[in-house]
Amino acid sequence: MDNEIMLQGIRKEDLIDGVADEVFKKVADYLKEINAPDKMMDRKEAAKYLNISARTLDTLTKDGKIKYSKIESAVRFKKSEIDAFISKSEVKIKKFS
Questions:
Q1: Is 68 exposed, middle or buried (0-12, 13-18, 19+ CB in 10 A)?
Q2: What value, to the nearest 5°, has the Cα angle with vertex 37 and ends 31 and 41?
């Protein structure tokens, strides 16, 4: 038992492994949630995701560039629709020879 730390009957290595496992589970759950293609976002979340103002998001939806759903009076955006808008908006760079 040289150089071993016991915390309420738990070896240091077991404690570290247990904490690491829990952290990895939480991170994996979080990544699944934010990367879910049909995750619904409100106006504020969608604007933040796009790094634009809510007013600019309103203009894009009004112009039909980003699809949205209306549930009662609440406007919601599918992450997959916002990602599709981003893909369509990519600018291809031409190489000059």
A1: middle
A2: 85
CA 32 to chain centre: 8
- In the chain the first and final C-alpha atoms are separated, in Å, by 70
The tens digit of pLDDT for each residue in 16-75 reads 888 888 988 888 877 777 666 678 999 999 999 999 999 999 999 999 999 999 989 999
For residue 14, CA distances in Å to 19, 25, 34 come to 9, 17, 30
Q: Quick count: other Cβ atoms within 10 Å of Cβ 82?
A: 22
Dist CA 57 CA 63 (whole Å): 10
Name every residue whose Cβ is closer than 8 Å to that of residue 75 and which is 6 or more positions away in sequence: 42, 43, 61, 68, 69
Helix (H) or strand (E) holding 78: strand 74-78
